[in-house]
Write a structure and sequence with these properties.
About 35% of the residues lie in helices and about 25% in strands. By secondary structure, the chain is of the alpha+beta class. Helix 9 runs parallel beside helix 11 and helix 11 packs across helix 12.
């Protein structure tokens, strides 16, 4: 069949690039033009601020404000990347990030957190905003640059001295693009709380100046990381059998990353195991969660047989039955995460399963040995459950 037969003409092909591509097909970059897409835009900006703080390698803060005029302000106390590219460090510069897609592979190593459903970049957030103001405080100087729908209005201007380092991005989501420009305080607060749990010492605040009667504000910082996460999840379901959270953190070069694991058993028959990769939820689980189950089953089974809670004729209970009443968080941070599925909701790195499994088995073995009374209480309550099933 020829092009003449179908009326096809190469001249009809429209090639969209850069800013035009983002504005004409916003759903491709933030998922939708509804509330979900609006939240993704917010997460893009907050994610960049979080990673500025995390990369600096010290406890820092990100402050997010929902402004009364519909704008969003995100301020961090990170190093304050300059607008121009830095040839020594390879930093493309803030202006390049705001006006074009990055040339490299993006944020893929363990030092970076994925705050949104995916990473599209600051350029997308800028292109989908009617207005954006970027302020950088770096090396004692405060500089500001303004943009309209992704286009810089003028070069960065020096506005005086700065008392510290950091970046503030203030933007107004474009009402011509989004069906709503009203963010959900609850949705943002829940995700920021989660990110703070998964990055120990990171402070995140959310302030809502939109209510006419009263400003709402929350602040999250968790010194115990995922231990605090598990304790909070358990408290939401009621009392626990084992009131002390079992947890540890470890680096393993075999998987090119680190793991932070915490768990406890409770009274309910519900299992609550949450997995995360570089601070992103993996609702379909994956090798990190499978490894956790492997290590848990191995340690509990070995202890139960040693204490004669299981006889020689009793089969191993299996990880699926040990999950009854269990609340756990398994967070891994990898240099090269492999996320599988249409929604990238499952971790596929094969090495992670053995690494997490070995670490959980070793830590829980030691915990049982060091706390025999607590160990007996926990395992003696668990074993009858799978004998009855």
């Amino acid at each position: 069949m020829s092009g003449e037969d179908t009326g096809y003409d190469a001249a009809l092909i429209e090639v969209l690039e850069g800013r035009d591509a983002v504005r004409r097909r916003p759903g491709m970059w933030v998922g939708s033009t509804g509330e979900r897409g609006l939240h993704q835009l917010v997460f893009e900006v907050v994610g960049r601020a979080v990673n500025q703080v995390l990369t600096a390698g010290r406890g820092g803060s990100v402050d997010v404000t929902l402004m009364s005029d519909g704008g969003l302000r995100v301020a961090d106390d990170g190093p304050g990347s300059p607008f121009e590219a830095d040839g020594d460090t390879g930093d493309p510069g803030l202006d390049a990030l705001l006006t074009g897609f990055p040339a490299g592979p993006g944020l893929t190593d363990r030092r970076h957190a994925t705050v949104g459903h995916f990473v599209a970049g600051l350029f997308v957030a800028n292109a989908l905003s009617s207005r954006l103001t970027a302020e950088v405080r770096h090396e004692g100087v405060r500089r500001v640059q303004e943009y309209t729908r992704g286009v810089a209005l003028a070069p960065p201007a020096v506005l005086g001295p700065a008392s510290g380092n950091g970046t503030t991005l203030t933007l107004w989501p474009d009402a011509e693009i989004f069906e709503t420009t009203h963010c959900s305080f609850a949705v943002l607060a829940e995700r920021f709380r989660q990110v703070a749990f998964l990055n120990r010492g990171l402070g995140i605040s959310l302030t809502d100046e939109r209510p006419a009667d009263e400003v709402r504000a929350v602040r999250f910082r968790f010194p115990e990381g995922v231990r605090d996460f598990v304790a909070t999840l358990a408290a939401e379901t009621g009392a626990t059998l084992q009131p002390h959270v079992i947890g540890f953190e470890r680096e393993d070069p075999r998987m090119a990353g680190t793991m932070e694991v915490a768990f406890l058993w409770g009274n309910s028959r519900e299992e609550r195991i949450r997995g995360f990769v570089n601070s992103r939820a993996t609702p379909q689980g994956g090798t990190h969660v499978d490894g956790f189950r492997d290590g848990l089953a191995a340690a509990v089974t070995a202890y139960a047989r040693k204490q004669r809670l299981l006889t020689a004729v009793d089969p191993d209970p299996g990880a699926d039955r040990l999950g009854v009443g269990l609340t756990a968080v398994v967070s891994v941070k990898l240099d090269r995460p492999e996320l599988l599925g249409a929604t990238r909701g499952r971790l596929g790195n094969a090495d992670v399963r053995a690494c997490v499994g070995d670490a959980v088995r070793e830590h829980l073995d030691n915990w049982f040995e060091e706390r025999p009374e607590r160990a007996a209480e926990a395992v003696e309550r668990i074993v009858p459950r799978f004998r009855q099933d």
